[in-house]
Amino acid sequence: MNLFSIISFVAVLVFIYLYAFYRTRKIDKKDSEGYFLGGRSLVGTTVGMTIIMTNLSTEQLVGQNGQAYAAGMEVMAWEVTAAVAIVMLAWVFLPKYFKYGVNTISDFIEIRYDTFTKRIVSILFIFTYIVSFMPVVLYSGALIFNDLFGIEQYLGVSSMTAVIIISTVIGLVGVTYLFVGGLSLIAHSDSLYGIGLLLGGMTITILGLIALGENSFFTGLDRFLTSHPEKLNAWGALDSPIVPWPTLFLGMLFNNLYFWCTNQMIVQKALAAKSLKEAQKGAMIVGFFKISGMFFLVIPGVIAYNMFGDGMQMDLAYPALVAEVLPNWATGLFGAVVFGAIMSSFVGSLSATVTLFSLDFYKPVINKQATNRQIAKAGRVLTIVIGFIVVLVAPLISLFPQGLYAVIQEFNGLYSMPLLAIILVGFYSKKTSATGAKVTLIFHIVVYALSKVVIPDIHYLYVWSVLFLVDLAILYFYSVKKPSQEDFQFDKYQNKVDITPWKHVRWVGILILVVVAASYIVFSPIVLAN
After folding, report:
1. What share of the chain is helix, strand, coil (3-state, %, to 5)?
2. pTM score, two decimals?
3. Residue 209 contacts residue 220 (beta carbons within 8 Å)
């Protein structure tokens, strides 16, 4: 990185911070709702961008393109099919959450089941975010940032030292962001980082096609479409290690519904909207963005395969492509966007962790008389404590054996499927069973853990396909045969904001579903992969 790159990098970060600070100056961040939910003031575009940036990290930018380098367009399932679940978020889940006026996913579980089940789910979320998600985001993000921009050479240190420095800086900046401005500050920052990531990612794709065509975009596009058509097939084989095609309609769909509709760090951003209408608008923005994600999270990997051939370590494919096509003067700008992507994912999960602990444990258990301002103050203290722990833990990820990262990623499977079942039964059944919820959680954790030992070669998406249906059956049986509460009064709870739906939510959702289906037709043996 030259001097101009460093100046432009810092300038972008400072500009985005000042913009976000200006937009959030009127929000009372000393109040718990202001700190944790941005005062429920976010509009649709801000909701959409902050959800996108919470989800999107450098691990996806490099990891998914790396998988696409190895396996082709079937990797797009992680992006494109997510749009189906996001439509369900707007159509089904958000109207329910807003109707009951909940602050967290666990609040809804408490309403429909009991406090103990609520706290079990909160602990699982908190444990996953602190042990798995945040350290991995910081470490892998720092590792990739170093690979992309050669920080170790610039600082004259070892690779490990550079990664520790980068992860520490990102962590400290993220903690400061959340401490100073709460959710609203990072949400407004994400609005600009999201635009930058979309433009930067698409730029790499376009420059890659130009390089593939030896300075001709259309020649590069022709080579991309004709050189290796087998790489353009989005339908994975039955035994594919990436995404077997039957799981698109089962395990992948169930996983997407969990992640996009019941995951606290995602849903919290939608709950911060000023109305249901704005939350639904934000969700639809995310839906279109996830479909477009294949153009900069998957296609560059296939371009790299066409440019460099096989034999490259897949996680090096995207950094190699960036180094090949990105002009030196743009390094700082692209670096700022990548930095923002890492920080946004880290802060998004940190905010969710602090919110869950403060609202589900501090207020009801530790300090039952706490005022809203005391809860917000406790949240700030927790922001520093948890952030500091994660910054210390992040470099330790390097000590784990190779391959454990994939196991950590699959850890969510211990509770994602039963949580989705618990939410769905809570939506539609007048009777629920707190005992059934606990039995379902225990059953799933035991059976899923055993599956990793007894049938380790079976793709986990196949396992989820079966276990979710069994979880749903167990919970429904208990709810019907052994309910633990009287018929639920669905009209008992009051919303906290306007819950008038967006008038265009139906047809926009249908349009997204049509585009998803069309994408799978285009990237199939029927069209491009022939």
Report:
1. 80, 0, 20
2. 0.89
3. yes
- Three-class SS string for 461-530? HHHHHHHHHHHHHHHHHHHHHCCCCCCCCCCCCCCCCECCCCCCHHHHHHHHHHHHHHHHHHCCCCCCCC
**Structural contact between residues 36 and 378, judged by C-beta atoms closer than 8 angstroms:** no
> Burial of 22 by CB count in 10 Å (0-12 exposed, 13-18 middle, 19+ buried)?
exposed
Neighbours of 214 (CB within 10 A): 9
**Residues 249-278: what's their mean pLDDT?**
92
What is the token pair recorded at 458? Answer: 């079976």
Considering only CA atoms, give the Rg of the chain: 23
Neighbours of 28 (CB within 10 A): 14
Q: Name which of 412, 443, 440 is nearest 424 in CA terms.
A: 440
**In the numeric block, which tokens belong to residue 521?**
């037709």
pLDDT at residue 323 in the model = 87
Full DSSP string of 160-196 = HHHHHHHHHHHHHHHHHHHHHHHHHHHHHHHHHHHHH
First to last CA, the chain: 43
Between CA 192 and CA 188 the distance in angstroms is 7
Residue 40: CB atoms within 10 A of its CB come to: 19
Cβ burial, residue 62 (10 Å; 0-12/13-18/19+): buried
pLDDT per residue over 202-259, tens digit each? 999 999 999 999 999 999 999 999 999 999 999 999 989 888 999 999 999 999 999 9
Please spell the DSSP secondary structure of 8-32, one letter per residue.
Answer: HHHHHHHHHHHHHHHHTTTS-TTSH
Please tell me which residue, 485 or 141, carries the higher pLDDT value: 141
Asked if residue 336 lies in contact with residue 343, where contact means CB atoms within 8 angstroms, the answer is no
CB environment 447-478: b (16+ within 10 A), e (fewer): ebeebeeeeeeebbbbbbbebbebbbebbbeb
3-class SS at 42?
A: strand
Structure tokens at 366: 């530790």
Of 94, 78, 127, 136, the C-alpha closest to 415 is: 127
